[in-house]
Each structure stands twice: as C-alpha cells, then as structure tokens.
Automatic annotation (TrEMBL):
The active site is at H224, K226, D231, H405, K407, D412. It is an enzyme of class 2 (transferase). It comes from the Bacteria. Residues 219-246, 400-427 form the PLD phosphodiesterase domain. It catalyses: 2 a 1,2-diacyl-sn-glycero-3-phospho-(1'-sn-glycerol) = a cardiolipin + glycerol. This is Cardiolipin synthase A. It is a multi-pass membrane protein. It is found in: Cell membrane. HAMAP family: Cardiolipin_synth_ClsA (MF_00190). Belongs to the phospholipase D family. Cardiolipin synthase subfamily. ClsA sub-subfamily. It comes from Candidatus Erwinia haradaeae. One of its GO terms (molecular function) is cardiolipin synthase activity. GO terms for biological process: cardiolipin biosynthetic process. SMART domains: PLDc.
Length: 487
C-alpha cells in the first residue's frame, strides 16, 4: 500500500511538472514578445494550476475551430472583388500627401484597399447629436441597415434608435445587428432582442460568453467595433457605443463618457460594408455578397469638399498586426505635431519608443488621457509609462471633463485617425477593431479644434511634481506595468 501511494505521489508530481514544462514550451514556441512571455511565465510559476488554466483560456489568440475556418475563407474571396475595383480609377485616390503616402501604401499592400475618394465627412462631438442623427438616417433608410457595437445599453436616446430600427424593419428595410455578448450583456437581458427579432431584424450575439466554451475559444477576445451602415451609402464609426451617457455607468464615478464619431456619405460605406460582411460571416456562417461594381452608387460622384478615407480593420481573420503597424507608420511619419487622445494608455514597447523618438526628433507630442478611469488596472498600468514619456518631452494632459473615451490621432494637422482602437495590447493585437484615416487638412483642422477643446478641459502633468510622487505609488505602477502585455 505504501508503495502504491509512493508511486501515485511521484506520478502526480511528474505529471504536474510535465504540464508546467509543456505550457512553458508552448509559450516559448509561440514567439511572443519578451514582456508578454515573461508576464505569463511569472503567473504560471507563481500560481501554477490557476496560471495554467488562465493561460489556456486567455493566453492565446484562438477564435475557435468553426470561426477560424470561416475567417480563413473570407479574405481570398473578398480580395478578388477588391482587385476588380482597381480597374475603376474613380474609386481609389492615387494622390496622397507626403505624410499619408507610407500609411496608404501599407494598407493597399496588406488589406488590398487604400484611400477611397469622393466621400462627405462630418465629425460628431456629442452623444446627443450622434444618436439623433442616426435616428434621422434610419428613418430615411429604404434598402438595408447594418450595425455592430461592443455595447448597446437601453435607456434614453438609445431607445429612440431601437424604436427607429424596428420601424425600419417593419417597412421592409433589411436590418442586421451584431452585438458583443460580454459588452451588451444588459441588452440581451431585456425585451429589446425579442422585439427586434419579431420585427424582422437579424439580431446576433457575437462571441457568446460561457464557462463551457472557456477552453474552446479565448473568452476575452471581443467584438469591439462601432459601426452603422445605411443603404450602402451612409456610414458611422468612432469611439461611441450605442448608449446614452446619462444612463451609462453612472455608478463608476468618473463622469459622463466623452466620445467622437464620424458620419460619412460615399463609397467608404461600401469599404466598411466589406468588413461588416466578414464579421457577419465569421459569426453566423452566412455570406453577405458585395454590391455589384457597375451601375452602382458605390462609385463616387465628383463633389466639392470631398475626402479621401481609408478604413483599417483588425482582428482574427484580418491582416495580422495591421493596426499596430499603421500606428507606428504614422507616428514615425510625423514631422511637426502629434496629438493623441485615448482613454487607455498601455502601449507596446515599440509604440512607446516611437512616441518618445518623435518627441526627441523635435515633434510637438501631446497625449490627452482621462484623469479618472473606469478601469483600476489600466489606470495604474498607464501611469508606469508617464515617466519615460515626460523625460522625452511629451506633454501629458489629464482630461477633467468626464471620462474621455475618444480615440484619435492627428499628425501634422493633415492626417487624422479616428476609430475604436485604444492604445493598449488588447486593441492592438486581440479585439475586432476599426480605424478611419482621413488625408485632408480641412478635416485635420476640425479634429485639432476638438482635441484643443479637450486640452482646454485638462490639466497638464508637471514632470517635476510627477517625479516627486510617493514611493508606494511607484511600486504599484511597476507591478501593473509588468502585467501590461496582458491588459
């Protein structure tokens, strides 16, 4: 009996260390960044069993077998349609500014689509104006409406959008709605999904969260896009979820969320529709055919004050690391000014180096972040980067007018980036995200006006005072910094 227990004990110990070694080897083989690998190894060796479970469920970018299979089939078929578009010179803009040229070349090479011209563009700076304008456009829709959001929370003006959406479906407009399961959990607990489905709207819960799926798909991989498409001609995107700030996260104590959205008219809606079709097929297996190229309003009309826009999409099934590469490209392209607004500042080492290098090169770099954040983890982790940024001469502004949720970058007053991407590893390498790039100094002046308004409501971080902060705060910052690759 003693021999049996001894053998069993040694077998358990051997199996335990074999499991540890196997997961360690898996982390090393994946060839991730050193900080990412070290953070996971620390977790696994400090909390072995819990760490292994955490890594197997959260450590790798795994979409699931079925969704991965669908994702692999999307871009080859889409690429054929995009190549056919290249024969229509009126669709793409071949002339870009010197600042935009490197980024547009990257996008054309990696995703098959560069700058689309002939678009009308408008920035919406308040949630009220955005939601009311969306309602008006929905009421005028006659063909199709597609939406995808990370969060849809009922209440206030968000209900007006829902009612208009339902009425559109009842009068024969083809309506599709894709909502992230985790972000929109409250929405799916209400009667709205049933009301919408009964009206004829295709409502899909993206990436369902369930303990039963924990080892079948990475649970924190989320559908983070915010897009509204109407009649293949009108498009919205930006940082705002479909929520009324008066009813959203009031208990967080950070004030109302401040967002920035873009409303566009023109062929860019078709380019964004291609991305939506990919998301829809990955989640449902149903293919949305692209609109015909000939005799279709996707081809731009010559208008005054039109804009050239490129849309960049990231996430499983889309070009890997393209958002990260795009951000690095525009930062290194900056010559005079670089203004960044982001709610979550936990950049990769490469991005941090690029921002600091820009400042050392003489670029006037300004970063605007909220003074109070809804995420304690991100709040402390982001502060770990402040010292290095301040030493490089970067100006850091802490916004005091609520939770600044706008995600924007303005390069030399010419190149504007607006979208859903936070400067953290989750947005850069994990979630489904979308970014709009506008090569136009008129748009740049408008974005600069908005960003300067944010700065006027912010407090400039004093480098000397920051260097004198309490030692215990530095310890917490470094602790969370170590786990920043996982945030």
């Amino acid at each position: 009996m003693i021999t049996f227990y001894t053998i069993t004990n040694w077998l358990l110990i051997f199996s335990y260390w074999l499991l540890i070694a196997g997961v360690t080897l898996r982390i090393l083989i994946k060839r991730r960044s050193v900080p990412f690998a070290m953070a996971w190894l620390l977790i696994i060796y400090t909390l072995p069993l819990l760490g292994i479970v955490a890594y197997l469920s959260l450590g790798e970018l795994y979409l699931g077998k079925l969704r991965t299979k669908r994702a692999r089939t999307i871009w080859p078929s889409t690429a054929i349609w995009l190549r056919n578009l290249k024969s229509h010179q009126d669709f793409y803009d071949k002339k870009n500014s010197d600042i935009a040229q490197p980024l547009f070349q990257l996008c054309e090479k990696r995703q098959g689509i560069a700058g689309v011209k002939g678009n009308q563009f408008e920035l919406l700076t308040t949630s009220d104006s955005t939601l009311k304008t969306v309602v008006q456009d929905i009421q005028l829709a006659h063909s199709n409406i597609e939406m995808v959001f990370y969060i849809w929370q009922p209440g206030g003006l968000a209900d007006d959008v829902a009612k208009a959406f339902i009425e559109a479906a009842r009068r024969g407009v083809h309506c599709r709605l894709l909502l992230d399961s985790a972000g929109s959990v409250e929405f799916f607990r209400t009667d709205w999904p049933s009301l919408m489905r009964n009206a004829g709207i295709d409502v899909v819960e993206a990436l369902p969260v369930s303990l039963l799926r924990i080892f079948l798909r990475r649970m924190d991989l989320r559908q983070h896009r915010k897009v509204v498409l109407i009649d293949n001609h009108i498009a919205y995107s930006g940082s705002m979820n479909l929520v009324d700030p008066l009813f959203f996260k009031q208990e967080a104590g950070v004030g109302q969320w401040v967002d920035l959205m873009a409303r566009m008219e023109g062929p860019i809606a078709t380019a964004m529709g291609i991305i939506y079709a990919g998301d829809w097929e990955i989640e449902t297996g149903k293919h949305i055919p692209p609109p015909p190229i000939l005799n279709h309003p996707i081809l731009p009309l010559k208008k005054t004050n039109d804009h050239t826009i490129v849309v960049i999409a990231s996430g499983p099934g889309f070009p890997e690391e393209i958002i990260h590469q795009a951000l690095l490209t525009v930062i290194y392209s900056s010559r005079k000014t670089l203004i960044i607004t982001t709610p979550y500042l936990v950049p990769s080492d490469n991005l941090l180096h690029a921002i600091c290098t820009a400042s050392y090169r003489g670029v006037d770099v300004k970063i605007v972040v909220p003074r109070h954040n809804d995420s304690i983890l991100v709040r402390w982790a982001s502060r770990a980067f402040f010292s290095e940024l301040l030493e490089a001469g970067v100006k850091i502004y802490q916004f005091e007018g609520g939770l600044l949720h706008s995600k924007s970058i303005l390069v030399d007053g010419q190149l504007s980036l607006i979208g859903t991407v936070n400067l953290d590893m989750r947005s850069l390498s994990l979630n489904f995200e979308i970014t709009l790039v506008i090569d136009d100094n008129k748009c740049g002046r408008e974005l600069a006006r908005i960003q300067n308004k944010y700065i006027s409501q912010s407090r400039l971080l004093d480098a000397l005072l920051w260097s004198q902060r309490a030692y215990w705060k530095r310890i917490i910052e470094r602790l969370f910094y170590f786990f920043s690759p996982l945030l």
